[in-house]
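User: My collaborator sent over this chain with a note saying "see what the structure looks like." That's all I know about it. Can you take a look?
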Amino acid sequence: MAIQINQELSAASLIPQIRRLWKVSGLKIQRLQTRWESARGTPVFTEKGAYSSRGWTEWTQGFQYGSALLQFEGTGQSKFLKIGLQGTRDCMPNHLTHTGVHDHGFNNVSTYGNLWRMAREGILPTQAVPLEAWELALKVSGAVQASRWTKTENGGGYIYSFNGPHSLFIDTLRSLRSLALGHQLGHVLMAEGDARISLLERLIQHLVTTIRHNIFFGKGRDTYDVRGRVAHESIFNTNDGRYRCPSSQQGYSPFTTWTRGLAWAICGLTEQWEFLINQPEKSFPTSSPRQTTLRLVKDAALATADYYISQSPTCGIPYWDTGAPGLTRLGDYLNHPANANNDHEPVDSSAAAIAAQGLLRLGRLLGGVKGKEYWQAGLTVAHTLFSPPYLSTSPLHEGLLLHSVYHRPNGWDMIPSGQKVPNEESSMWGDYHLRELALLIQREAQSRPWLRFF
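Assistant: Without extra context I'll predict from the sequence alone. Here is the result:
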């Protein structure tokens, strides 16, 4: 089956749920702020309801302090602005020049980007707003992200993942917002011989390379070419720039779809479409003309959104991978709401929080009857997430969004005693994106400007 889209929902109808969300969210932010010591590293996911760190890459600290900033905007409570400002000032500068990750759009746009956006919208108190400092931070972040570059055989290229120059991750579609902001602020990447490298050109080249290699369109590319399916990772030969094969770090296999990767694609593609439609033709590289690029991004956004809708249970919450082997033991699982407490495969609510925002953005961009379907699908997923068993209402649990999964193949996720698969735990990215989703819908219900950085 597919998601049972509720046509009766509206942004305004979700406001009672969103008010409850902000109430429990604030308590959790304060609890973590009081307990967490930055010397322990970055909080990543919960174990028995308490946030813990996991050394792999430093990609979640921006979500920690960005969550406080979203909480301030959603509620107007200045204590959360103070937490977000202090955390950004004390803990985020190193992330601006972190050359070892592909996650600048996660860490730095969630903090410096939110502060910059709110300042420009007049949401922040006007006194002593260091707007130029935040702009400089965003310029630096975008350029550093763009410097992680591998050329491909056709003259294009991609921002390589923390795995190394051979590795292109689907996740980076969502992190491209750092390049977009840097370009919007008039910045370029300076290279050898004082070469001026356009951040927009690299953004577009990365988009095109990712769409061509990590997203499938059902045109017979290989045996498992199903429209809308994504590969978490693409592998390239760095000697000649040739594509070699799909791969996966966090999914079940290279030939199945890790649903958080699918969600990153939906959300990242639609946000970049919003950005690119406002860029003039002359800004586009000759290798990717404006009309051709926009059509490619649109087709990829529609394909991935359609696949998510068709491969998610009726409630809109997906299992962690569409090809996970235990799904066959769940029977007709797509014809029922997801069961987070089953014995075979975990769900991933964080994928749903990310995808829901993408569906809403896609619906708004398209408009008309088709756009309405995506919009209502996004509201349907949000409606599910904003209530138990996904919304964590217990003050003893530090997470906000329950049933999030980090790295199933590595076995990093907590499995409760007496159960067989991970559940009941939260992640920093899931909590952040649930708050961002709530804020987007709240602003729409209040007839405020659309939530965007561009």
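A starting point for your reply to your collaborator: DSSP finds 15 helices and nine strands in the chain.
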